[in-house]
Amino acid sequence: MENYIEHTVPFKAGDGLECNLVNVKAEAHPPKGPVLVVHGAGVRGNIFRAPVETNFVDYLVQEGYDVWLENWRASIDLEPNEWDLDQAAKYDHPKAVEKVVEETGYDQIKAVIHCQGSTSFMMSAVSGLVPQVKTIVSNAVSLHPVVPGWSKVKLRLALPLVGLGTRYLNPQWGIKAEGFMPELIRRVVEATHHECDNGVCKQVSFTYGSGFPALWEHENLNEETHEWLKDEFAEVPIRFFNHIKKCVAKGHLIANGDETGLPDDFEMGKPQTDARFVFFAGEKNRCFLPESQVRTYNYFNNHESDRHALHLLPTYSHLDVFMGKEAAKDVFPLMVHELENEG
């Protein structure tokens, strides 16, 4: 869209880490106000701008929203760092929300959150750290990470061994792997993943799930997007995988234990937020099973019935919810409808 107003706004996380927000809008004062959009692990805000006819950012802008893409500490636009969900929940998302409020003059905003951006943002929300956010649309996983059986095996058995040889996993090893562990993983992936010729696509599936592929259905992506995604994935720390491993074993999110001021268990007690939550899940997701979002919806519905919502998408997986060539027709209108639904 030629008339976008776009600029990058730096913000400092609560522990001093330099992060940023990419603001995209069509006019000085968009009529529907600000929406914060939060990416997952080892990608960046740009993941919502796939080369399709109308990507998610395009759609929100055209619908009249002031879009703020948060590059938190998991972003590949920042220097690699050994983060966990606690740090993001306590330090990154509250400061990002504060910065959007400061920059826009709105005292209430909305958010669309995905994958580990969703888990960590939900930790912020239920801890009462982002009271300015009144509507939260979550995709793929939130408080209850449920993964396929093979993913559990990899977390339990392979992760400790991999962690002996590297501090990060990196899908870029599908293009270039240097060192013993990266080269070993590259060879394992090449030997076991034959679903396409894109080395990064195959590494992503090995790293994050149990499918062939795990994060999207190939038929949902156009060829340009399948090529584009080679540049959209990079380092994710073993520290994070060790944290999510604990959460998967517990059945819901728990603190990693290093940051004070957060609950030890995020399922215990009443959520410290009055936000309305809407949960999306692709039924073909092989990273986090759709049961993840069903459980979290039930958790919130038990606390406050008939206010929150759940949408299962039968032909979608994980990231194709945002990157799919038909997502602007199949998914985005429903998300916008829910952003505008006061409940």
Automatic annotation (TrEMBL):
Pfam name, any one: Abhydrolase_1
InterPro entries given in the database record: AB_hydrolase_1, AB_hydrolase_fold, Cholesterol_Oxidase
UniProt key word Transferase: no
Superkingdom of source: Bacteria
Entry keyword annotation includes Flavoprotein: yes
Name the record gives this protein: Esterase
Family: Belongs to the GMC oxidoreductase family.
Keywords: FAD, Flavoprotein, Oxidoreductase
Cofactors, names only: FAD
UniProt domain AB hydrolase-1: residue ranges: 34-152
Coiled coil: none
GO MF term set: oxidoreductase activity
